[in-house]
Specification:
The structure holds two protein chains of two kinds.
Chain A (H helix, E strand, L loop, with lengths): L6 H6 L3 H5 L10 E5 L5 E3 L7 E5 H26 L14 H10 L5 E3 L5 H6 L4 H8 L33 H14 L6 E6 L6 H13 L3 E7 L2 E2 L2 E2 H4 L14 E5 L3 H18 L2 E6 L18 H11 L1 H11 L5 H24 L35
Parallel strand pairs in A: 4-5, 5-6, 6-10, 9-10
Antiparallel strand pairs in A: 1-3, 2-9, 7-8
Chain B lengths: L32 H6 L3 E2 L19 E2 L18 E4 H15 L3 E5 L15 H5 L4 E3 L4 H14 L2 E5 L10 H9 L1 H4 L9 E6 L14 H4 L6 E4 L3 H13 L4 E6 L6 E4 L12 E4 L4 E5 L3 H14 L4 E5 L2 E3 L3 H11 L2 E8 L4 H13 L8 E5 L8 H7 L3 H11 L2
Parallel strand pairs in B: 4-5, 4-6, 6-7, 7-9, 8-9, 12-13, 12-15, 15-16
Antiparallel strand pairs in B: 1-2, 3-10, 8-14, 11-13
Chain lengths: 389, 405
């Protein structure tokens, strides 16, 4: 992305910094320190500082990627209403800061596993828009070859383990990945994400117990958007302090609508997990859409509540204000960026619409692995068996 | 009630199963098992096609006298060598060899480490390989099965032990949705090379909840393979093959078979996961069985031979997928099928096998496929009642006589 030089502007506002900064923002890594919106609340540990190290480049990247995620989810909404996406579609708009902040704090060797609200996390891990839309529409070039759907996005080379439909089942998987990381001495951590609804699952506590016993580098991230489908958190959980639920495991409560707070918390959690074992992060966030596309989202909460959060806490607006106040880009430049993003998303959708459906033979592929595996077939076995090593 | 089947020679003959401890069994008829078998002859043959021979290292085709029901792997070069051990030791040997061979193999389960395993299958492994490779888990089947599957997604090869197969019902979600399906829903990105193993089946008055046969519940899960071992030879072979397989494999052991003794080869061998085992070739009727019922069938076979029948006994071993090749060849030869299983009547392995045989080999059948299964009841505690929930040799004899009319 290229931003035009607006030298006239830098003369108008007497800021010594802006005169010195060249407007080639794409390579600008001038450090900026940003204060998080709220202090962290900690359980059994010392909270990290509120000052987050960042840079102008990172601010712009945050804005751009979050706007891309937002646009992608809204486009998915329209596609669903046009019946191009079927089944279940769980949208992440409003929660983008969690995905972005986490990515900024970790490497691609660190693993992320999440539940079914996975489109944006997949994008953050390096997935392409085309793969997302193709998979959502069940096409051949989708990230899971069209056989997974909205709830089953995976990206093995970026250590993104999905994409799971059964609430809570991904947390033991995540602790297993952390176990493997410890076994192979990888110096990496696993972020096992779940929601406030899943926080009441027994298997979470089982997995947490084992992680704490065996000192596994697992970080449990509760994306608390305050509603488990249609049930508000105060109706589902006796103790809504999800970061304290670990009891003997330390926890941190984070403002999930502030990407920098998320980044700081994840950085802190990674250092902690590599040294001391599991930690719980509770991200206080909000989703604008209903639980899924089949849920209007307004029967259990008021429209005022939704628009109130949108006005006061929207993560993209927050970054936008920071970008403007730090004079990194102008209002117009950001609008141009958004237009560009819109076009990018539309192009990806058009390309995905052209992609064909999977071949009928794909029905039977990847049920088993070939080799010592087998193929589902009848009595006339013509397959040559593999030689054992 | 169950007929007493008397063998000719005295018990304790130096045969493979002569040290089969009758006290481990409930029904009186089984106390004669060693004697009944000592004079049996069994032909060892590679099942089905020639292609399978290459996979049975050291397996021979010669007639072996006095070998009871186990198929033996004695080549002419190694006759006389080999070592005798019990079935649980064979499992342990297989597990240990695979752990030596591949550092990614690890074991997790309750009491597998310091305690040595509740059936001693993992005895000594924790001392040898350390706590990171032989992991004592807390009692949370759902979580540790999920963790094993998560670890497998990254490339480790965990062997997950359910202390009793029945406990794995708590982990059904993980086994069905994650273990079986992740390879498919990820478009092939992740493989799940786990082995889930544990003892199941009706034991000696263990009560209803500890006498379950889970193979019927798991058989519909797409993406998994299921095998059942029955002798020390195939226990070791199947364990090794399951660990090496890239697919998730559920290995069903039986509580009452852990103390079977047999001589197995010294050299390394592996059994094919998808192949059935020809226990006794014959001409008149095909009897399909697996796990512990194999021994009931062989006991019944002794009586049947005396009465002039020539049953062909096949241990199907591979419960998912069925080895329809071997089974088909047998059906084409004998034209009569009897299935003897320990699974429940409703929705059990026998039910699926009956359907598969009827679908594929209907033209070759002279009589309807008969299936003898356990009763559709929770296993009672009382010894006599428990005896009657499972199929007894006398019932097998009656069924064969009925089919062969």
């Amino acid at each position: 992305m290229s931003l035009s030089r607006l030298s006239s502007r830098s003369n108008l506002i007497p800021r010594p910094l802006s005169a010195a900064i060249s407007r080639l923002i794409s390579t600008d890594t001038t450090p900026i320190t940003i204060e998080t919106s709220l202090p962290f609340t900690a359980h059994l540990c010392d909270p990290p500082s509120r000052s987050v190290e960042s840079s102008t480049q990172e601010l712009l990247t945050f804005f751009r990627t979050m706007a891309l995620m937002r646009r992608m989810e809204i486009a998915a909404d329209s596609l669903y209403k046009a019946k191009l996406i079927r089944g279940f579609c769980h949208l992440y708009d409003g929660q983008e800061a969690v995905a972005i902040g986490m990515e900024a704090a970790i490497t691609r060797k660190d693993a992320i596993i999440t539940a079914y609200r996975d489109h944006c996390i997949f994008l953050g891990r390096g997935g392409s828009l085309y793969e997302v839309f193709a998979e959502l529409m069940g096409r051949r070039d989708g990230c899971s070859r069209g056989k997974g759907g909205s709830m089953h996005f995976y990206k093995k080379d970026a250590s993104f383990y999905g994409g799971h439909g059964i609430v809570g089942a991904q947390v033991p998987l995540g602790c297993g990945i952390a176990f493997a990381q410890k076994y192979d001495k990888e110096e990496a951590v696993t972020f096992a994400m779940y929601g406030d609804g899943a926080a009441n699952q027994g298997q979470l506590f089982e997995a947490l117990n084992i992680s704490a016993l065996w000192d596994l580098p697992s970080i449990l991230v509760c994306e608390n958007n305050h509603y488990g489908m249609g049930t508000a958190e105060w109706r589902a959980a006796k103790s809504p302090s999800y970061y304290k639920r670990g009891d003997y495991v330390p926890g941190l409560k984070v403002d999930g609508m502030d990407a920098f707070a998320v980044k700081q918390a994840c950085k802190f959690a990674k250092e902690h997990a590599l040294k001391n074992g599991p930690i719980i992060l509770e991200m206080d966030t909000y989703r604008y859409h209903g639980h899924s596309m089949s849920d209007p989202g307004s029967t259990y909460r008021t429209r005022d509540e939704i628009s109130g959060v949108r006005q006061e806490r929207d993560p993209i607006e927050r970054i936008k204000k920071l970008v403007l106040s730090h004079d990194i880009a102008t209002e117009k430049e950001l609008k141009d960026m958004e237009k560009e993003i819109r076009k990018e998303v539309d192009d990806a959708i058009a390309k995905a619409k052209d992609c064909p459906m999977p071949e009928p033979s794909e029905l039977f592929t990847n049920v088993y692995v070939k080799g010592f595996g087998t193929e589902s077939f009848g009595p006339d076995r013509k397959e040559v068996k593999a030689a054992l090593p | 009630m169950a007929a007493r089947i008397h063998g000719g020679a005295g018990a304790g003959a130096a045969t493979a199963l002569s040290t089969f401890n009758p006290k481990k069994l409930v029904a009186p008829s089984r106390t004669n098992l060693p004697a009944a078998r000592s004079s049996k002859r069994c032909i060892v043959a590679a099942a089905g096609s020639d292609a399978s021979k290459s996979l049975r290292v050291g397996h021979s085709q010669k007639l072996i006298a006095n070998a009871a029901v186990a198929t033996k792997a004695e080549t002419s070069a190694t006759t006389g060598t080999g070592h005798e051990l019990l079935l649980f030791e064979a499992l342990q040997e297989g597990l240990e060899e695979e752990m030596d061979r591949d550092p990614h193999v690890c074991v997790m389960g309750e009491d597998v480490g310091h305690y040595g395993g509740s059936y001693k299958v993992t005895k000594g492994l924790a001392d040898k390989f350390g706590d990171l490779r032989v992991l004592d888990t807390p009692i949370c089947e759902n979580a540790f099965t999920g963790m094993g599957i998560g670890a497998a997604m990254t490339g480790l090869r965990p062997v997950i032990e359910g202390m009793n197969m029945g406990f794995l019902l708590l982990a059904f979600n993980q086994i069905s949705n994650n273990c079986g399906m992740l390879h498919y829903t990820s478009g092939g990105q992740f493989t799940i090379p786990v082995v889930i193993r544990g003892p199941g089946g009706v034991g000696r008055q263990l009560g209803a909840e500890h006498s379950q046969r889970l193979e019927s519940y798991f058989q519909s899960i797409p993406g998994i393979q299921m095998v059942a071992c029955s002798t020390p030879y195939n226990a070791k072979g199947l364990m090794k093959a399951a660990i090496r397989s890239e697919n998730p494999v559920i290995l069903f052991e039986h509580v009452l078979l852990y103390n079977l003794k047999e001589k197995i080869p010294d050299e390394e061998y592996i059994c094919n996961l998808e192949e059935a085992e020809m226990v006794r070739p014959g001409e008149h009727i095909t009897i399909l069985t697996y796990s512990r019922m194999r021994y009931h069938v062989m006991q019944a076979a002794k009586t049947l031979v005396n009465k002039g029948y020539d049953p062909e006994v096949i241990d199907i071993r591979s419960l998912k997928p069925f080895d329809l090749y071997t089974i088909g060849n047998s059906v084409k030869k004998t034209h009569r099928v009897l299935i003897v299983e320990e699974c429940m009547r409703t929705g059990g392995i026998g039910a699926s096998l009956t359907a598969a045989i009827n679908e594929n080999f209907h033209d070759y059948l002279d009589a309807p496929v008969m299936c003898l299964s356990s009763q559709d009841v929770p296993t009672p505690y009382a010894g006599t009642l428990e005896e009657w929930t499972v199929v007894q040799p006398a019932q097998i004899v009656t069924a064969v006589e009925q089919l062969c009319q």
